[in-house]
Amino acid sequence: MNLDRAVMAFAGVMILISVALVYFVSPKWLLFTAFIGLNMLQASFTGFCPAAMIFKKLGVQGGGCAFK
């Protein structure tokens, strides 16, 4: 798995978790979903993604073009 796919998979898992939290706990968890979406949006424009930096430190190989 390359870095781009790892970041997208992580974002997808976080969104699914937040949807479950909205459904089972409280609608206030929509703020978490919004945070994830805003982070993905800014990463698409700037290329800066904290998750990508963490995955790099954990040894996930590059190979994609989104996060270098």
Binned, the helix content reads: 55-70%
Number of helical regions: 3
Structural class: mainly alpha
Largest sheet data? none
Total number of beta strands: 0
Q: How big a fraction of the residues is strand?
A: under 5%
What's the average pLDDT? 91
- Overall outline: elongated
- What's the structural domain tally? 1
List the uncertain runs.
none
What is the distance, rounded to the nearest whole angstrom, between the alpha carbons of the first and last residues? 15 Å
- The whole-angstrom Rg is 13 Å
Q: SSE string, helix = H, strand = E?
A: HHH
List the helices and strands and how they pair.
Elements lengths: L2 H22 L5 H17 L3 H8 L11
Helix pairs in contact: 1-2, 1-3
Structural summary, described in words:
InterPro entries: YgaP-like_TM (IPR021309). Keywords: Membrane, Transmembrane, Transmembrane helix. It is a single chain. α1 runs antiparallel to α2 (30-46) and α1 (3-24) packs across α3 (50-57). This protein is elongated. The protein has three helices and no strands. The chain has 68 residues and is mainly α.
Quick tags:
68 residues; mainly alpha; 3 helices; elongated; YgaP-like_TM; membrane; transmembrane helix
Short description:
Pfam families: YgaP-like_TM. With about 70 residues, this protein is mainly α.
